[in-house]
Amino acid sequence: MNKQRIIECVPNFSEGRDMNVIKQITDVIEAVEDVKLLDVDPGEATNRTVVTFVGSPEAVVEAAFQAVAKAGQLIDMRKHHGAHPRMGATDVLPLIPVTGITLEECAELARQLAHRIADELRIPCYCYEAAAYTPERKNLAVCREGEYEALKEKLTTEGKQPDCMPDISEQSAVIDSHFMQTGCTAVGARDFLIAVNFNLNTTSTRRANAIAFDVREKGRPMREGNPITGKILRYENGEPIMRPGTLKCTKAIGWYIDEYGIAQVSMNITNLNVTPLHVAFDEVCRCASNRGVRVTGTEIVGLIPKKTLIDAGKYFLEKQHRSTGIPEADIVKIAVKSMGLDDFCPRQKSYKTSCLSPQTTDWKPFNPKEKVIEYMLEDDNKETHRLVDLTAKEFAEETSRESPAPGGGTIAAYIGALGAALGTMVANLSSHKAGWDDRWQEFSRYADQGQELMSELLRLVDEDTEAFNRIMAAFGMPKNTDEERQVRSAAIQEATLYAAQVPLRTMKASLRVFELCRVMAETGNPNSVSDAGVGALAARAAVLGAGLNVKINAGSLKATKSNSLPPQTADMATQLIDEADSLIKIANAEETAVMEIVNSKL
Q: Most exposed residue of 12, 171, 227, 298, measured as fewest CB within 10 angstroms of its CB?
């Protein structure tokens, strides 16, 4: 997959019960090269399946077209019934920028796709959100007004017709046979949207709707007298006067789910920067409580960005006056537990698309590895031999083998990461120390810094080995002609320079560990002062060890014949060695200072 330009597509198909139909649709998506199918989320009550896939823009657009074609063949909208609003076999088809592409570019791709669907598949299309041709059609609800049941009238009524229309000169017979089978599709472009259902301890759709109206941005109509049965107040143009809800950038309705036996508030969050998921959760809980109802669990439909769970986890930790400088997996777990993402285990559906079949319905609790888009992509792109993924025993054994990598530079980076981890541990212990409750934020900030530092050094573990492998690859290049020898020599120089620069970064990162350990030795939990001392010792070992690798690789550059070594490269080699010597002196002084503090408190 081209990692430079990636978009996501999240089509909603009007079939959530027949796994054979769903499988045929997802098969055509997976058949397109450079596309990764990430999630398939059917709903029996809604009779709707949300599919998520990513890839290069060209590949995703092609996969989307093929999926619309297949859904149009297999799904007969004349027979469709479900709890969710819908108007077509492929109901909505949004393109979402992920990396290397703008929302505006996705909007143009969406318009082109809509025209192609109308021209080649004879399926009418509205263009909505960022792809809309008119301001009012930015709102999906405007495009889908009247749903499928109003489609025949809309197809033949000027002003209501879809933006991309096939030829309907054949009149009503064709409309009845073809268009009414496939329905209409809304093709659009939008930023990342979260679809979430909040489970309630009630069976009342009216109560669920009341909560939805309390929170959704649109709110509810204002009425005379009785707020429920009173006459709706309207503007001069006849439009109802609305009392806005409390959450910006949200759409919500209440419904009853037969499959679950409960009512839900079903919400779309259209801008996570304005209304994060955890804010929506707390507000729905508050409004539900005001009406004597409780939120009993939260159900994510489709995938979510990792940042959503990280922000939520840190939010709930801060509410508890707990440190946020803990491993990412722990932060995610706090988010999952706090919002009840796995409290409704029987209904959190996860389908492994590689083995999806009509008989397969795998009910399981919320699994971040299957619901967070970054984790899904990490699994797809994961290197098979990353050192940081090995156990401690495996890492030691791998180092001991008769291969030069992993070597001293890699081990230096790992020692530095352990030093940062020890300083972070002291910060977290201090943040949670009894009697120090008023200092939790102070230590939490240091723990956050320590986690970032540890992550940087862990990345350098594998990068140092990769730098060595580049040198070996350069030496293995052909050298049969003068041109090949020249190219090979240049590649060796470039790889050797890089192999000297990577451990220098390890030195600089490891030096920052001293500040963390010094502050923890001075002001942290006194029972853990020795841990801060060991962290400082590890940091010094990391700086000195990485320094040796800077010198040996930079020295190799200096030893190269001058006629094949550019002067600027030779100058840089000297600068690298001088800088390494300077950093070693600082590390020695820092380690001495920290150990004096530690020894004074033992």
A: 171
